[in-house]
């Protein structure tokens, strides 16, 4: 917002400064030229600087204020656009409910890793009896369960692995350049921590969660499609053998 009083004050001060310099100059040069600074000449010497300097400087300061406001607005708009782009990039990569990578991004990164000569381990994770949780306690409780699992996966993987929601209650984790023993220990730790999760349902029931996990060791130059299929099949074997199990 333009402060017109400040513009006017600066214009008056500029006019006063112009008047001061004009009086100094004329008081020096007029006598040297044989003239006398008095009467109408003095009035014009005073009036002309004020009549020209104040309006012109007011217009200048007003335009400067407008330009400053325009620059500030442009900077705010640029910052807002940058934040919106950051949010859009995040939304394009992440699953909005769980915070892990969405299916497309996870698969893109997993396939890209397979082409770079890395090895590792792929975990295919499926929450047990998830439909029962939804049917018994409502979708809000089911969403809370998925959200808690996403938070757990992000905390356990961080920079060690990529984690994505592959669909519904299914998640994938790929641990890059890890030996089989570490991968098996990680899968067991994950299974135990999922079993320790509890969700409070609207009726105050304490809802327990478990997961079936299929693990596939991926050697250098592995086939990503085959690895996904094997991990998925092992996860279903864990389901058939009683759930809350790891099949590797």
UniProtKB/TrEMBL annotation:
The keyword Transcription does not apply. It comes from the Bacteria. SMART domains: GGDEF. InterPro entries: Diguanylate_Cyclase, GGDEF_dom, Nucleotide_cyclase, Rev_trsase/Diguanyl_cyclase. Residues 67-94 form a coiled coil. Keywords: Coiled coil, Membrane, Transmembrane, Transmembrane helix. It catalyses: 2 GTP = 3',3'-c-di-GMP + 2 diphosphate. Its EC number is 2.7.7.65. The chain crosses the membrane at residues 7-30, 42-62. This is diguanylate cyclase. It comes from Pseudochrobactrum kiredjianiae.
